[in-house]
Amino acid sequence: MKKMTVLLLSLVFAAFGYADTYTLPADGSRIVGQLQTATAKRGDTLNRLAVRYGVGYNEMVRANPKFKRRKIPAGTSVIIPKQYRLPDAGDNGIVINLADMRLFYFPGGSNEVMTFPIAIGKRGWRTPQGQTSVVRKHRHPTWTPPASIRREAARRGKKLRRVYPAGPNNPLGTRALRLGISGYLIHGTNRPYSIGKRVSHGCIRLRRPDIEALFDLVDIDTPVTIVSQRSQSPAQADTVTENLAKATPSKTYRRAAKAKAKRHYAKKSKVQRRKSQHQKSQRRREQVDYHTAQSFNYRRVQEAINNGSIKTINFNEM
Q1: What's the burial of 230, exposed, middle or buried (CB within 10 Å: 0-12/13-18/19+)?
Q2: Annotation marks residue 187 as catalytic
């Protein structure tokens, strides 16, 4: 019965693009899926395409490095990296690969695997590795920020509420799976564009459709294995190398960029020279005013002595 449910859910998720479901290779290979391409629309970025096609931002950047920090021209062919290497951590339950920011779920009694992009802990808030399990499931959870997270937010000038009720603004999203490692969860998010980045406080984030799909499939006591294995597929590696070569600026482009930078710094130097000349002129005026004031005061003192207003003292007669 559960195998039939998994099959039906797999078809539904594949139709809506919420999850990638693959049959495990019969030849023992660890590669599943294949690279795809898509045509960018006006205003598209790698982040938007990542959300649209259900992949992580890190994967889109790795496959299309030249569009990392700019919009993609309409009509451009963009690679959607839908080929993955399964981590060597056993095909049982939930396996999380931190290096690739990917979660793999192996349903019991099935030869299939489902995979989802995730967000993981940022620097200083690393996601722990090891063996654990799902100990509790929360539907529409509330979030009470720990004191450590409130202190960090206060240092950044942000004040967190004591409790975030269930709803669209809840950072835990609509579902949460509590792990046996104290304080860590697999949960949704109210920031879908953060998937594929190191931005959490150690928990594992999934987009809303993905966490809701996983929540319905996973039972309590499902084993969870967290590893960190950089496992780029061969096709992805070749494509990334080719794209990096394309992304390398040409000699003409480098020459034009160098000339533009030279004009920029020349203009900046001209402004600095003007400012320096103005400061020198101002200092000269101040010096003239100072000496003029000194001479003026001396003349007044001399006139007062001549008029007898100030009595002079001859030290030789003392």
Answers
A1: exposed
A2: yes
